Amino acid sequence: MSTAQDPHSAGAAPAPAGYRAALAVREFRAVFAAHLLSLLGIVVGEIALSVLVYRVTGSPLLGALTFALGFLPYLLGGTLLAGVADRHPARRVLVVCNLLCAAGAAVTALPGTPVPALLALRAFSALIGPVLAGTRSATLGDVLGEGDLFVLGRSLIRIVTQGAQLAGFAAGGVLLTAVSPRTALLSTVAGFLASALLLRFGTRRRPGRASGGADVLRASLSGARQLLADRRTRALLLLSWLPPFFLVAPESLAAPYADEIGAGTVGVGLLMCGMPVGTIAGEVLAGSLLGPRARERITLPAASVLLLPFLLYAAKPSLGWALGAVALAGLGAAYTLGLDQWFVAAVPEELRGRAMTLQTAGTMTIQGLGMALAGAAAEYAPVHWVVVGAGAIGTLVVGGVVRLVVGSA
Prior knowledge:
Layout: H1 19-23, H2 26-57, H3 60-68, H4 73-80, H5 84-87, H6 90-109, H7 115-144, H8 148-175, H9 181-184, H10 186-202, H11 216-229, H12 231-247, H13 249-252, H14 254-261, H15 264-289, H16 292-305, H17 319-331, H18 335-346, H19 352-377, H20 383-408
Helix pairs in contact: 2-3, 2-7, 2-8, 2-10, 4-7, 4-19, 6-7, 6-10, 7-8, 7-19, 8-15, 8-18, 12-18, 12-19, 12-20, 14-15, 15-17, 16-18, 16-20
């Protein structure tokens, strides 16, 4: 397996530290930029498509379903199509996935495309999403190696994902004041096409990790069975999946909680920004100030306490205190840097693409389930007590997973 090359020749200035070391690798810069461009297009497209469906149908349910379809097919795609990530050259998979998503977005932008087709195309892109994300994560191991650069590279991908969501929602709102939703969807097409070009000409061709034989479906399912049968890998996957299940509670209930405390629409926006801002800050601080061993040492303690700030909701806090609690919980998401190192070390190379795809699919799916469960609970209990429950129950559940991880070492 190829590893990252030192970007400096002998006798030159020392290699940059921290995130700069990852960004000094030319191929990673191409992968990073491609992800940013496609992600901005996706976020703007999500808003535009949701607005388009609502305007055409006048149905709040169908407008909300447009967003939900970005989560629901992830588990299906991550389970049934994961084998694609290992059986074919990574560059080809990344380019083809981007082109397929661009084609789907282009059809949604066509005048007269019926609503069922709009929803089906949204689901189609979400079906491809875990393969694209899993292949990209596995490719980072080829581009950056399996050590600290890999961890920092994945951290940068997560940081730009959170940041692009904040910027994309703002840009999408502004764009829709000037152009129609179908015109705004062209930004999604452009993002995916630009991403495909960057990956095609900015990364090297590498062969697939797994040999042929079984068909994609069989290879995907057998890979999932192998990964889940291994005690260590199973424990690390649970540590990837379960904290986000509880973390989404205050974000998904931002609107009713803002209404509960009289914070208005501004409060909704701020509460939805709190978690991404905290997450970005936590990852940047851990990636910049801590070395690899220090990041591994804080992994389990950070995971164990990251949901405790939600207990502050018991006092039904004002907007400022609620925002602080949510941002503080986001800081704890820095546990993922050490987790990434353990995960890539635990997974056999020939299963890496399937492992990353399964991890991504599980995370996206469980966040969607967490949002739905929090909303259902808020039908029967005050919103602030639902968030408290997520913090208390989540802390107990994550504590149990932490013990599994310790026992699997």
